[in-house]
Amino acid sequence: MDIFGMGPGELLVIMILALVLFGPGKLPEIAATVGRAVREFRNATRELTSEFEQAFREVQVSTTEVATSVLSVQQETHAALQETRAALNEATDTVSRAANTVALDQVAAPATMPAAPMVPPLGPSESTAVTASASNGRREPTKDDPLADLVDVDELLTESKPSISAGPWET
């Protein structure tokens, strides 16, 4: 049996030296004092160990709470990311459909023949004049005057303005 790394022979030598140095009257007091010191040391060690264990448990609980919070935030972020991706895909599909619709609206119409034959091209001196259709008298747009057909609409609007009658409030 080893006590503090010392065998029985070594302990016997220490006890004999203590008996010689302190005498038989003081030896029981010294042994009681050493026993109390060992007991207090054990109690202090036990208290310190329990405090360390309590602190360790608190750290574990805090770590678990943080891990749970992180997982919750990660799941919420993942859900928000999925929603954002779905909205982005929906917006992309809508834009694609709108672009296809616009592209279909922009398809060139097949060329058609004019209803009435056009007047032969004007010579260099008549380049500023506006051509008229032989059948209906409308002005046709040319390279020099591309908005000539709109002039006829303007004339129709100025001729057909309705007259406004005076109301009971006007004298």
Can you describe this structure?
With 171 residues, the chain is mainly alpha-helical. The protein contains 2 helices and no strands. The longest helix is centred in the N-terminal third of the chain and has 98 residues. The relative contact order is 0.03.
What descriptive keywords fit this protein?
single chain; 171 residues; mainly alpha; 0% strand
Rg over CA atoms, rounded to whole Å, is 55 Å
pLDDT < 50 runs, ≥5 residues? 125-135
Helix content: 55-70%
Structural class, from helix and strand content?
Answer: mainly alpha
The sequence of SSEs as H and E is: HH
Count of DSSP-assigned helices: 2
Estimated share of beta-strand residues: under 5%
Mean pLDDT: 78
Oligomer: single chain
Number of strands: 0
The rounded distance between the terminal residues' Cα atoms is: 134 Å
Main β sheet profile:
none
What general form does the structure show?
A: rod-shaped
Short overview:
The chain is 64% helix and 0% strand. With 171 residues, it is mainly α.
How is the topology of this model organized?
Layout lengths: L7 H98 L42 H12 L12
